[in-house]
Request: fold
Amino acid sequence: MGIIGAIGVGILIGIISGLVGIGGGALLTPILIYAYHMNQHRAQGTSLAMLLAPSGLLAFWKYYQAGEADLRLGLLVALGLFIGGYFGGQWAQYLSNAALRRIFAGFLVVIAVKMFLQK
Reply:
């Protein structure tokens, strides 16, 4: 998958993220593993690179314009994400690819089941 494929994946992730408000990493990480044959560490690191400034800025702006975003809360959570991301990234380096993949999959399953069963 060359440049066009990578941009296409980004557009797809951007559309879905903007549409349903999920973190693009939940979709991008599996794509990087299976389509780009990356290991879990490389896929998560690449996903984090995508999450830097451009990924949600325009989607956020649309929600903000519609009065559907709490900027103060978002900035406070971003501060926590900034700090927590440092430690999470550091700790991930001590886990095997298999362990990291299982943790990632476990979070996705728990979230999916909870959302599916919720009324």
About this structure: Residues 71-92 form the longest helix (22 residues). Helices lie at 3-20, 25-34, 40-51, 54-65, 71-92, 97-117. The mean pLDDT is 82.
